[in-house]
Design a protein that fits this description.
mainly alpha, 14 helices
């Protein structure tokens, strides 16, 4: 009889622990993200008003053009595996994770960033895949991840943007020159911030006014110059991959962009998109609008460019976002 009572008691304790585990804030947050992301996606599908344009453009594409689209999809896993490798490098000072686990984290981050301005919510999905003790530092590492991406965008985009304006207006006015001066100075300052991360981390420990961020930034003191360079290199490789993907998508929609024009216009488009405040679910409109303005400036038809911009967003963002939602829903990590 006592043994049965003990078994019942143990079973009840087990059930209570499971209920507590399942009702913890991380689990609630997970389902909020999943429901909100699906809701926003359904909203965008319902309100999208270019279905007829898509049908018309696709009807004009010959079978021989589809190999460009195939190449876009071949590069899709390369794109996100490079991002996963970058995240693995960033968190390596906190905990050791495999590339596959890092991929789950970043795809979940894509989902959690879907309905936040400039994808700032990506860190939520990423850090929830870290151990509890590492999540504060994970927030800073997510910021560092965005910082490196913006640095590469600026490094490649500023010269390309300069060449674009020069090709359109050989006598650039004072306003455009001021714009480039401000952009270049900002890039230099952010670059210096990146190079001195280790020093800033040490200062946060010594300065009582910065002590509040020390628990978050302690991890930065472990990064050597070689580590930072390696992270930046992986970021650059990924940047090249999604620029090439965009070029292939433009060719798929029969936009005859040669190498030199692609070298100018694609980095310029990404530069404008990156530094324009927007929600992730509205990025397709922002991306296609800038693409139409920049690439269309060289007398290419506007509609195929817009369709290419929307399509590359669907391939590179919506597909990974849906995969991330499935991962989050099935994950037992939180």
């Amino acid at each position: 009889m006592n043994r049965k009572l003990l078994q019942i008691s143990s079973f009840n304790e087990f059930l209570q622990l499971e209920l507590i585990k399942k009702s913890k804030p991380e689990s609630i947050l997970k389902w909020i993200i999943v429901v909100a992301s699906y809701s926003f996606l359904v909203y965008k599908i319902i309100t999208f008003n270019r279905y007829q344009n898509f049908v018309d453009e696709w009807a004009q594409i010959p079978i021989s053009q589809f190999w460009w689209l195939i190449m876009v999809f071949i590069l899709l896993p390369v794109n996100w595996l490079l991002e996963a490798k970058k995240w693995q490098l960033l968190v390596s000072k906190l905990q050791t994770i495999k590339v596959g686990y890092a991929l789950k984290a970043i795809l979940s981050g894509v989902s959690s960033g879907f309905f936040t301005p400039n994808r700032v919510g990506e860190f939520v999905g990423r850090v929830l895949f870290l151990e509890d003790k590492n999540r504060k530092s994970g927030v800073i590492l997510s910021v560092l991840n965005s910082l490196t991406q913006n640095l590469v965008m600026a490094l490649c985009g500023i010269p390309a943007c300069y060449l674009f304006f020069l090709s359109q207006n050989k006598n650039m006015n004072d306003e455009i020159i001021k714009y480039f001066i401000i952009l270049t100075i900002s890039f230099i300052l952010v670059g210096l911030l990146y190079l001195f991360l280790r020093w800033l981390s040490h200062q946060s420990k010594l300065n009582r006014f910065l002590a509040v961020i020390a628990p978050f930034s302690n991890c930065l003191s472990d990064f050597s110059a070689q580590d930072l360079f390696k992270i930046l290199l992986v970021t650059l490789l990924r940047y090249v991959v999604f620029c090439v993907q965009f070029y292939f998508m433009l060719r798929f929609f029969n936009v005859g962009l040669d190498f030199w024009l692609a070298f100018i216009t694609i980095p310029t488009t990404y530069l404008f998109v990156t530094f324009t405040p927007s929600m992730a679910f509205s990025e397709a409109a922002v991306r296609s609008s800038y693409a139409a303005i920049v690439i269309g400036a060289f007398s290419f038809p506007e509609m195929p460019i817009i369709m290419a911009g929307v399509s590359i967003w669907i391939v590179n963002f919506v597909v990974p976002m849906l995969a991330g939602l499935v991962i989050m829903a099935k994950s037992k990590t939180f």
